[in-house]
Specification:
The protein is an alpha/beta fold. Helix content is about 45%, strand content about 15%. The chain has a single domain (about 1-189), classed as Rossmann fold.
C-alpha cells in the first residue's frame, strides 16, 4: 500500500513536512509513504493552460496521486485558511472533475502551527476542498499547536500524545483504503 504525502508548506524546516516524516514511522508495516516534493513548481491554475499534455509539474502531481492508494496532506494555516500553493495544487488535481485522480481516493488531513490552534481552520478547509473534488476524506483532524515545542531542532516529532493521536488518524486512513479495495473487488466479481 502506498500513501502520498503532500506538505502545504514550502519552508525547508516546516513542522508540516516534519509531520509527514513522522507518518513514515507511524504507518503500519507494509505501508509505504512517498512525499511529493514538486509543489513549488506547479504553476498558478489557469484554465487556458489546462490542456493535454498538462504542464510537466501538474502531470507529475496527477500521476503521483493516481499511483497512490491514499493521500495524506499536512497543512499549515495561513490567514485562517489553506496556503495558496496547496489550494492551487488541489485545483490542478481536481481537473477534469469527473475523472480526476482524487475521485474516490481515501485522504486524510493533519496540520501543525506555531499558534495555539494547530491549523484547525486550514484542516477543515482542506477537507472541504478534498470532499468537493470527490476524495473520500477521513473525518478526523490532528491539530498540532505550538509546533516549536512539539518538534526537536532536527524537525523530529517529540510529543508522544500527538504521535498516538496521529497513529489513530493513519490507521483510519489505511482502513479507508482497505474498505475501498474490498468494495472495488466486490464490484468486479
Amino acid at each position: 500500500m502506498r500513501v502520498l504525502g503532500i506538505s502545504g508548506s514550502l519552508r525547508r524546516d516546516s513542522f508540516n513536512s516534519g509531520l509527514l516524516r513522522a507518518a513514515a514511522d507511524l504507518l503500519p508495516s507494509g505501508v509505504e509513504l512517498e512525499v511529493f516534493e514538486g509543489l513549488k513548481a506547479i504553476p498558478p491554475y489557469d484554465a487556458d493552460d489546462d490542456v493535454q499534455p498538462a504542464p510537466a509539474p501538474v502531470a507529475a502531481l496527477r500521476e503521483a496521486i493516481a499511483n497512490a492508494d491514499a493521500v495524506l496532506i499536512a497543512t499549515p494555516e495561513y490567514n485562517a485558511s489553506i496556503p495558496g500553493v496547496l489550494k492551487n495544487a488541489l485545483d490542478w488535481a481536481s481537473r477534469p472533475h469527473a475523472t480526476n485522480p482524487l475521485r474516490g481516493k481515501p485522504a486524510a488531513v493533519v496540520g501543525a502551527s506555531t499558534g495555539m490552534f494547530g491549523a484547525v481552520w486550514a484542516q477543515a478547509e482542506t477537507r472541504k476542498v478534498l470532499s468537493t473534488i470527490g476524495a473520500r476524506v477521513v473525518d478526523m483532524e490532528l491539530p498540532v499547536p505550538e509546533g516549536d515545542e512539539r518538534f526537536d531542532a532536527d524537525g523530529t516529532l517529540r510529543d508522544d500524545e500527538v504521535a498516538e493521536r496521529y497513529g489513530e488518524v493513519l490507521d483510519a486512513l489505511v482502513e479507508a483504503v482497505e474498505v475501498r479495495a474490498a468494495g472495488l473487488a466486490a464490484r468486479a466479481a
